[in-house]
Amino acid sequence: MILLDQIENLIKPLKKSDVPEFGLMSAQHMVEHLTLTVKISYGRIKLPEFQPSEKNLKLKEIVMSDNFEFPRGVKAPGLGDKLMPLKYQNLEDAKDALLESISSYRAYWEENPKEQNIHPRFGYLNRKEWDHFHDRHFKHHLKQFRLI
């Protein structure tokens, strides 16, 4: 996963005052959103089991394709036009939390290579699928703040 391997350097220039090219998130909201998603992917945050709809299974197929890029304006499941309250004191603490969650993600999958964890739209994903999703998801948000 190229982006996760480079994320520390990619987010280093991100400042609190940076304005997104698209979307509602502040720089800190974006970093905290990525942290939350990573924590879901290694089971640190548990989601209830569910059977994904046919529509979401088709969307999963599209997202997992090699050419997919998240469109601008896509909404996170369950959030709509609302932003979650900020969890960390500042952007630097949020960046540290993201890097820590990525480290935990790597350790988890080293110890549990056959595990699967629930994605909020697609149901259970294995490590290869989560890696692929994170690559696309991180790229979307890094472009949001012109970091790539």
Please provide a written account of the structure.
It comes from Algoriphagus sediminis. This is DUF1569 domain-containing protein. Pfam families: DUF1569. The mean pLDDT is 93. The chain starts with a helix and ends with a helix. It has a two-stranded antiparallel sheet. 20% of the residues are buried. It has 5 helices and 2 strands; from the N terminus they run H-H-H-H-E-E-H. The chain is globular and about 40 Å long. By secondary structure, the protein is mostly helical. The longest helix has 21 residues, at 91-111.
Salient structural properties:
148 residues, mainly alpha, two-stranded antiparallel sheet, 5 helices, 2 strands, 50% helix, globular, DUF1569, DUF1569 domain-containing protein, DinB/YfiT-like
Strand order of the largest sheet: 1-2
Low-pLDDT residue intervals, each spanning 5 or more residues: none
The counted number of beta strands is: 2
- Taken from the alpha-carbon principal axes, the silhouette is globular
Overall pLDDT, averaged? 93
Main structural class: mainly alpha
N-to-C order of helices and strands: HHHHEEH
Note the main sheet.
Answer: 2 strands, antiparallel
- Please give the share of residues in helix: 40-55%
Strand fraction: under 5%
What is Rg?
Answer: 15 Å
How many H/I helical runs?
A: 5
Task: Determine the N-to-C terminus distance.
Answer: 15 Å
